[in-house]
Amino acid sequence: MSISNPAIDTRLSLLGDTCPILPACVPIKYRSFDGTCNNLRQPSWGSALSPLERLAPPEYDDGIWEAKIRKFGQELPSVRVVRSVLVTDENHPKVDMTHMLMQWGQFLDHDMIHVPVFRTANRSNIECCTREGGTIPPEMRHPHCFPIDIPINDPFYGPRGVRCLNFVRSMIAPRLDCRVGYAEQMNQLTHFIDASHIYGPSPDIASSLREFVGGLLKISVIEGRPYLPQNPQARGCIRTNGFACFVSGDTRVNQIMGLTALHILFLRQHNFLASALAALNPQWNDEILYLEARRIVGALMQHITYNEFLPTLLGRLTMDTYGLTPQTSGYSPSYDENVNPSITNEFGAAAFRMGHSLIQGAMNGGRWYGSGGLLRQAGLMDAVLRGLVDQWPQNMDEWVSEDVTNHLFQSAKRDFGFDLVSLNIWRGRDHGLPGYNTYRQVCGLPRVTNFQELLTIMDRSVVDRLASVYRSVDDIDLYIGGLVESHLPGSMLGPVFSCIIADQFARLKEGDRFFFEHGGHPSSFSPAQLQEIRQMSLAAVICDNADQIINIQPLVLRQPSPTNPRVNCKSPMIPRMNLAAWKQ
Ligand code: HEM
Ligand SMILES: [Ca+2]
């Protein structure tokens, strides 16, 4: 599906100096921290600081890197108008699922992608608007500013005098093929599902998180319980009683409490595994214990994602069509060294942001956002997890909670915040993403030629609103088109978002030599170990690592039901892996 860009070969020119130097690879048992040498022929594929892939060529304004502000010479509509007209806040819960579906999605996302934005020379944030939300003349702004203009008659920001939302352009990466061409955005994480958000995407960050005793990760102990370590230098967390931000392998760990809670669970899971392996294999040193525990945690991330998360989101049919359904025994033959595992721009800047529509409202009030630190209060961690496995998420659709549209990251001093949906659409234009219609074609669906034709795939009220803001069907932003398309049967998504997301998870399976189901590599699990990993579930991780959760449904992304009843954590319905398969 991917495309390559034939262009000038800079290896023959002076620009060749900036060509990334590729490491020489030897196959070993453990993944590298930065993801290099996963593919032995293409050592940088999927590694940290490498570029995103694309499913279709970009539509930059100048063909190179200028943000997409026009289509066929005509200016695209204001993102804030698109957002206000198309995406509003109504309560449409998805009553057979739990809010953990949303939370796992974000946790997983933070393993796969973080596109850094430009910063000033001294590494601070670039401000593209005045403090009061006023505009700054272009010649006075930082060159990487791309602020969002708010129309003066905006129903929400207008009366508050806000005319400008800060937005800084995404950083771009050197092209791996060393050819001059259009800009590709950079992923600062390992693209693979390898628990880089827990361990860190570089050897240095990984070391900073290790205890270097018994294979353990560093912790901070609060009232006798292990939590993530804290960084007194980092600002931006609610700091009561001298509490500082938590640190993990990903910088976004404090963003919301549910996310922080999952980070804490997996930190505890790692240390539990390291200690259990040490008891089984007293001859193993710190290094082996750490690497073996990390290898199992990475496999758990993948197993939970393919076994619980993706079927819930995509449905069985799409799972099978894209070869995503996990096997119940034996190795999977799916490794293909020709598959580029990298995250696609369409996935990161649009399709997987569908998760923002799943967010349940009423998490506001300073308790949920940026407040992971509150979790140290006795009982709150369990209360948050309990909430996630009890509460409904919202449906994936054009209704998105105002908590993240008008009030994202709102500070106590203000009555407004950011608009995540506007950011998503604007980010797509920053990355030059073609419109929704192009991806219908990429996904093997017929293009539409006018708004009337959209009536076969969307509700009339949506089509009318699309026609009221966009001049042509070709202008519809990918994020918006994907949010409003009718869902496939048995799926939470429509055909285009399904295709982009399923393609991504197929790449992350077929293109990952270390994928936990793959056999025949130095890194492969033994057949017995693989069978043990298959026993595990997110429910088991919660049961073993929360403070005092006693009852839970075996499939925590789904609501309890007669086939998924709340049972005691000790029930055989929630099996655990037996580590005896790791005894040497
Ligand atoms: C309360 C929960 C969440 C908050 C507050 C949040 C917030 C954000 C913010 C502020 C951004 C950066 C926007 C930009 O400037 O482009 C972002 C990006 C993103 N979000 Fe979320 N998000 C949440 C949940 C989720 C969920 C549930 C998913 C997926 C299932 C998700 C997927 C993504 C993806 C893929 C990106 C792009 C990351 C990158 O390219 O660096 N988010 N989110
Ligand atoms: Ca990763």
TrEMBL record:
Keywords: Glycoprotein, Heme, Iron, Metal-binding, Oxidoreductase, Peroxidase, Secreted, Signal. It is found in: Secreted. GO terms for molecular function: heme binding; metal ion binding; peroxidase activity. GO terms for biological process: response to oxidative stress. SUPFAM superfamilies: Heme-dependent peroxidases. Heme b binds at residue 356. PROSITE patterns: PEROXIDASE_3. GO terms for cellular component: extracellular region. It holds the Pfam family An_peroxidase. The keyword Signal applies. It comes from the Eukaryota. PANTHER family: CHORION PEROXIDASE, OXIDASE/PEROXIDASE. This is Chorion peroxidase. It comes from Daphnia pulex. The lineage of its organism: Eukaryota, Metazoa, Ecdysozoa, Arthropoda, Crustacea.
